[in-house]
Write a structure and sequence with these properties.
Length: 254
């Protein structure tokens, strides 16, 4: 039984009222959806793994000065986060062509992009999260020009840091999606990274074999979805319980 008030339920997560004002509990479900809800399934254990992976990545980002909503992990499926006002714009950073940019621009998957490319999508399921430009974002007031500058600067810092972190464990960060929120502290507003960073929101390919270790295994019916998420957690050294302590550290892949 859950005594806490449910604030929001999304496709892969539930947000509950937190223990103190200004906090929320983010609960990770095993549910997976793709193609704007047309494909739905449960991936056993995904919520537990994403909770750990997102905790790890948000903590590492915090250590290098990237502000995030993450406070601490509470249990296998839940983490405590700061309550923020979510900006309704998803920021996608791409290093290698894959997914919708390949289709849209006729780029072969796995071709290296000339430089990291930032794209914006409006967070609106009914419209299928359409790609939008800076003009749309500022004209419609979804985010102001300063907010957007902060979001892009943070997204590129996240990309630099996470590309290196994943490379160290033999994974290529092909692309990822970030969400941002506004956090007020003493009348000051800061933009922070919110939501989650996990194989649900990143494309991660094995550096040697290009094997997909992310949600594309689900989207494209490649099988072994749970195993792929486990492999990411294992390489980051955050696979829960099952392994002895010496296997729990990130492994440098030469
Ligand atoms: N992405 C996401 N949520 C979305 C759309 C995209 O997390 O609603 C992530 C996706 O996992 C990938 C990146 O953003 O890492 C770029 O996705 P793309 O635009 O290629 O769309 P997709 O092929 O995922 O529909």
């Amino acid at each position: 039984m859950n005594r806490r008030r449910r604030v929001y339920e999304g496709k892969a997560k539930i947000l509950y009222e937190g223990p103190e004002p200004g906090t929320l509990v983010q609960h990770f479900k095993d549910d997976a959806t793709a193609y704007n809800n047309r494909k739905q399934d449960t991936i056993e254990g995904k919520g537990v793994l994403n909770n750990r992976i997102s905790e790890y990545l948000m903590m590492r980002l915090g250590e290098v000065g990237v502000p995030t909503h993450f406070v601490r992990r509470l249990n296998m499926r839940e983490q405590l986060v700061r309550e923020v006002e979510i900006i309704p714009v998803e920021v996608v950073v791409r290093n290698v062509a894959a997914g919708t940019i390949s289709k849209r621009l006729g780029l072969e998957e796995d071709s290296l992009l000339p430089r990291p490319i930032v794209e914006y999508c409006l967070k609106n399921d009914d419209l299928g999260d359409p790609i939008v430009t800076e003009e749309h974002i500022t004209a419609f007031g979804w985010a102001g020009p300063h907010d957007l500058d902060d979001m892009v600067a943070l997204a590129l810092r996240v990309n630099d840091f996470l590309s290196g972190l994943f490379l160290g464990v033999g994974l290529k960060l092909v692309d990822f999606k970030l969400e941002f929120g506004r956090l007020w502290e003493d009348d000051e507003m800061r933009i922070v990274v919110a939501d989650e960073i996990s194989p649900d929101s990143c494309r991660l390919w094995d550096i040697k074999t290009n094997e997909r270790l992310d949600k594309d295994r689900f989207r494209r019916d490649l099988g072994s979805v749970e195993e792929a998420y486990q492999e990411v957690a294992r390489r980051l050294g955050v696979l829960p319980e099952t392994l002895p302590a010496e296997h729990q550290r990130p492994k440098l892949v030469q």
